[in-house]
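Title: [Solved] MEI1 protein 3D structure

Original question kept below for reference.
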Amino acid sequence: LLFPVSNLCGKCRPRDTDLLQPSLNFLYWSLHQTTPCSQQRAVAVLLSNVSLLELLQKVLECTWLRSPPSEPAYLSPEDALLCSGWLLAASLLLYQHRYNTEVHQTLSLDLTEVLNAAIFRKKKPVLLLVSIMQFLKAALRQNFSSSLMVIVGQNTAQGATQPQPSSLQDAALHPLATRQVFSLVVSLQNLLVHKDFLLSQAVVACLETLVEYLSTKNQDVALHVASQPWHRFLLFTLLNGGQKSLLQPEVLRLMTLFLRYQSSNIISQKEISQILQEAAEANLAELPEATSRALHLFLCQV
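Solution (posted by the thread starter after getting help):
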């Protein structure tokens, strides 16, 4: 089925939402709901389809080319197609890297536009933001160096002139610029305040991957991002609601991140003791899976 469905997608235009959206969903689930052996074959089939990848690039570009909807909470057919496109692109990045699959057609993306799509919400539905975060996380994990993806934009022109001292930090973080890093961090913090479970999980995962990326590029910048005082206010905001338990997956994962980078101004021994006390009193068998995983990572980090 992958052959006819992927070929059908390649013959469509981005505005053919009724046909494309379920088709891209089928391709996405074909990658995820299969055995490792079949998964490798499925990735090879999709990455050998040049028309499909050209169509996928056009779909992704619609994220910043079309006007935002009037109702941010309403997932229009066009937004649903964008969600499917970003999720499929993220999966192809992940599995192409895992299996080192041959690439017949690259995805050329403007990094500034991709970042702006995440930084400036512009009435985007939550599911679309989550999908873009998934793609950003996959790209960050591969240091923006996937053979499937070509990064274009203002920060990609290297070697034209000798970098000035003020741009040496940008050179270390290439292809990201320092201002883009801090804008993205602020945006991620703001999105966490919305307390949407799906969005929170995607945002925290993106923040974790971003700090890990920064630590390999410039340790000082990574430590600066992880120790921003605003993070402590963010934790207080997340805990200021109906469920004030520290055993919330996004809170546990944030605290694990701050522990990993020794941000003692964000998380103190008192908070660590409180989490351990709550965990000791909780019925661990009844904790949601996301909470159990986050608690496990936190305890390992401690």
